[in-house]
Design a protein that fits this description.
globular; mainly alpha; about 525 residues; Growth Hormone, Chain: A; single chain; 2 strands
Length: about 525
């Protein structure tokens, strides 16, 4: 007669779903906070009397904190246990959120956002580790699909929630909302998460930490400065990228020497993990880069409010919700190499519609394209992660999820910077309006710049009286600039097919429980 502990149920039972609920709560807080703050930047400019470049550090500081702490998560999970570390991350994130709401200056807000990011950076890789161990090898796909919901809905729900809260209350509430959610998540985690066994035998890789964490932070700092400077030639961009890149490359060569490196690149010997990481990297550069510009099109070209722009993005989330449970179930039964390429076809088809955008493109077409993209998203991201983690042992899962999160963070930041620079450079080619200058800087105002400003604030039309044809030309120029940028994103989506065709096309043997077999003592008398 088989033991119940050995016979892993095919469906997700109540105990596993209870654990998934904790992880999803943490993921929602961490991911929503990135996109919620993005819509508050103009408000921060007004409240703190700061430039856009200055207030943008409320996002950049958070991102750099994430990049700094993610490499430590794998070691810390083994050393202190996933439950204890996850609860610590929740406390840090929630405490940082409360401090953000009390900020009296932009400098304070940036500092508190860094503290918040230190907690937020650990939540996702820890959540992936906890859920993978809870599900077992036969149910990873379905459980990862649950975790994928906040990852896909965050960029959609964030602008809606942020715009609504700022409209009805104040910017403080985009942070205060995390306090009750964080408290509930903390109590929920204490009750629902199983106790685990820390492994204090592994030494901490201080040399690796001094190379990798500052290297990632410096590299991403340079990348994040690209949209502001518009060129790689600026010292603010190339110097930190060069130093950071050198540190990261140095770490890559160094990491194969210690027995327990900070980031175990030996895991890339696993073909599934390496191919999945490459697919994920190309995909994140393409989709996260151009995808973040979809709401900007609605705001700058179509003159929609932040709330309406968020609502127009909703079809993407609906599409993802339709396919994600199906993709999760299929990932447990069919090799992802047979399903992911079909999902990428849907993304490419939806993306192509945005390469044709103009000043009056049908919302039915664009919302339909977003829905189709969402269908593809639901069948791509989490199945790829499932493939990456499935053949790792239980002990390797924490390190593997940390590696995947670093790939996501770097690729997403690089993609966002590249697309922002392309769009900015396209807009800079717009002709200047003769005799019209910015009253604050004295710089000439371009047709595109004025068209964007008037679309977002129609009252400015009276301050800068020009012929209607000038605004029409400027708006058409802006729409063409977005279309050109989306063509680059579309090309990168097509490039994702190359590593995707290398994903496993036959069932792989899971090694998730190998540690337990090895750990069983054999007594010899």
């Amino acid at each position: 007669m088989s033991s119940p502990s050995v016979a892993a149920p095919d469906k997700l039972d109540a105990a596993v779903l209870k654990i998934a609920g904790v992880v999803v709560l943490g993921a929602i807080m961490s991911i929503l906070d990135v996109t919620v703050v993005s819509v508050a930047l103009p408000t921060f400019q007004t409240e703190f009397d700061a430039t856009y470049a200055r207030v943008a550090w409320t996002m950049t500081g958070y991102t750099l904190a994430l990049a700094t702490v993610i490499p430590l998560t794998g070691w810390a999970a083994d050393r202190f246990g996933t439950k204890r570390l996850y609860m610590t991350a929740l406390v840090l994130f929630t405490f940082g959120s409360g401090l953000c709401a009390t900020a009296d200056s932009i400098g304070q807000l940036i500092a508190y956002r860094v503290l918040q990011g230190l907690g937020g950076g650990m939540l996702m890789p820890l959540g992936m580790t906890i859920m993978t161990r809870a599900a077992g090898p036969q149910r990873i796909g379905r459980l990862m699909a649950v975790l994928g919901v906040p990852m896909l809905l965050g960029p959609i729900g964030g602008p809606i929630l942020g715009g609504w809260m700022i409209d009805i209350a104040s910017w403080h509430w985009i942070f205060l909302i995390n306090l009750p959610i964080g408290l509930v998540a903390l109590i929920y985690a204490a009750v629902a998460l199983p106790k685990d066994s820390p492994e204090p035998s592994e030494s901490f890789d201080f040399v690796g930490m001094l190379m990798l964490s500052p290297g990632l932070a410096l590299f991403l700092y340079g990348v994040s400065s690209l949209p502001e400077t518009g060129t790689f030639a600026d010292r603010k961009v190339w110097l930190p990228m060069l130093v950071g890149g050198a540190l990261v490359i140095g770490f890559v060569f160094y990491s194969f020497k210690p027995r327990h490196p900070l980031l175990d690149l030996r895991l890339l010997r696993d073909r599934n993990l390496s191919v999945a990481a490459l697919t994920l990297a190309v995909f994140m550069i393409a989709f996260m880069g151009a995808g973040l510009l979809f709401p900007s099109y609605f705001l700058q070209v179509r003159g929609e409010t932040t709330l309406d722009a968020g609502l127009l993005m909703a079809p993407q989330g609906i599409g993802a919700m339709v396919t994600m449970p199906i993709a999760g179930m299929l990932a447990d039964k069919i090799p992802v190499g047979r399903t992911v390429p079909f999902a990428l076809v849907l993304i490419a088809a939806g993306f192509f519609a945005f390469t044709q955008v103009g000043t009056d493109t049908s919302y039915w077409l664009l919302c339909g394209a977003l829905f189709v993209m969402g269908l593809g998203m639901g069948g791509t991201m989490m199945p790829v992660m499932t493939s990456a983690l499935r053949t790792l042992t239980n002990h390797e899962v924490a390190r593997g999820s940390t590696l995947l999160n670093i790939v996501q963070q770097i690729a997403g930041s690089v993609g966002s910077a590249i697309m922002s620079v392309i769009l900015t450079n396209e807009l800079n080619d717009s002709p200047a309006i003769p005799g019209v200058t910015d009253p604050q800087t004295g710089e000439p105002i371009t047709e595109a710049g004025l068209a964007i400003a008037v679309e977002q604030n129609p009252a400015l039309a009276a301050q800068f009286p020009v012929e209607p044809s000038v605004l029409e030309r400027g708006l058409e120029f802006v729409a063409d600039a977005f279309g050109t940028t989306f063509w680059v994103g579309f090309a990168l989506v097509l490039a994702t097919f190359i590593p995707a065709f290398l994903l496993p096309r036959r069932r792989e043997v899971s090694h998730l429980n190998d540690d337990e077999k090895v750990a069983t003592p054999v007594v010899i008398h």
